[in-house]
Every structure is written in C-alpha cells, then in structure tokens.
Amino acid sequence: MPKALEVTLPSDREVRVVRSFNAPRQLVWDAHTKPALIQKWMLGPPGWSMPLCEMDVREGGRYRWRWRSDEDGKEFGFFGEFKHVNAPSKLVHAEHYDPGDVGGAMDSSEPAIITSEFVEANGVTTLTVTMLFASKDIRDGAVSTGMTDGMEMGYVRLDERFKAEAA
C-alpha cells in the first residue's frame, strides 16, 4: 500500500511533499516525464483535463502544461525550464504560473524551483518534491489553492495505473 501524501513546510519559502508508489523508479520517472502519461493522471480534481503537455526533458529544455475545466472551458497552466535532469533519480525545474482565464493570486514574476527526487527500495519508489518559492507570501498563496490536494488526486490515479500494469 502506498504511503499517504506527507506535506511539510521546511522553511518560510518551501513546501515538501513526500509520496510513495508501489512501482519501480523507472515507471514513476516515466510517469513524470512523458507527456502522454502525464496527461492521463496529472489532472487534479474531477472535471479537469490537460489538453496541453509539452516537455523537452533535458537541461535547458522547456515545458508547458495547461489544464481545462470541463464545466466552463477556462484554462490555466504552468511553464518553465528544466535546470537539472538526472534520469531516473532527480529532476529540477523552474516553474511559472500562467493564470490563463482562471486567474488566481499566485505571483508568477519569479519562478518557483521544483526539485523532484525518486528513490526506490524493495520495489517501492518514494518521490520527494521540494518547492522553493520566491517568498513566504507566494508560498502561502500557492498552498491556499489546495495544490497538494490536487496532487494527491493525481497520485491516486497514478497508483491505479501502476496497479493495473502490475496485474
């Protein structure tokens, strides 16, 4: 059974999310770096789709993600650049918020730096995501959106995919 999502605030500017998956590290890595896979699970709450997922996963490569509400067609997203890629163990990227026509209070003038580390032991991969924001206010604004709840909804979908693949 995967461990539940653990969310901590290690400093005034950081959010750390730790989650385990019953899957080899390479599968978890692929799920986080291959657009066709990401579009199947990184959807947040029900009622959202991800019509745009572009990723050039290499140092200096760019990415762009956009989500669309099924209810009203409004969109928002994130974009940025990969700063460090060490497959399948570590991925660091700069992330800007694109409010699209959803809006939101997250300041995107300075990117958040997202570090994702993938560690496998006995067939269980632990993913640690550390998000470093430009300020405490920006961090608190991001947390207030319910982002970690949305992350867990996506991770549950990913658990289901791994379980189906293992069957």
Written account of the structure:
The protein has helices spanning 25-33, 35-41, 136-144, 147-166; strands spanning 6-8, 14-21, 48-55, 62-69, 75-86, 90-98, 112-121, 124-132. It has 4 helices and 8 strands; from the N terminus they run ββααββββββαα. The mean pLDDT is 93. β7 (112-121) and β8 (124-132) form a beta hairpin. The protein has an 8-stranded antiparallel beta sheet. It is of the alpha+beta class.
Quick synopsis:
This protein has 167 residues and is of the alpha+beta class. The chain has helices spanning 25-33, 35-41, 136-144, 147-166; strands at 6-8, 14-21, 48-55, 62-69, 75-86, 90-98, 112-121, 124-132. A hairpin with a 3-residue loop joins strand 5 and strand 6.
As a percent range, the share of helical residues equals: 25-40%
Alpha plus pi helix count: 4
Count of β-strands: 8
Strand and helix order: EEHHEEEEEEHH
Low-pLDDT stretches are none
Q: What spatial order of strands do you see in the largest sheet?
A: 1-2-8-7-6-5-4-3
In whole angstroms, the N-to-C terminal distance is 15 Å
Q: Strand portion, in percent?
A: 35-45%
Taking Cα atoms only, what radius of gyration do you get, to the nearest Å?
Answer: 15 Å
Indicate the overall shape.
globular
Structural class: alpha+beta
What average pLDDT do the residues reach?
93
Main sheet: strands, sense, barrel: 8 strands, antiparallel
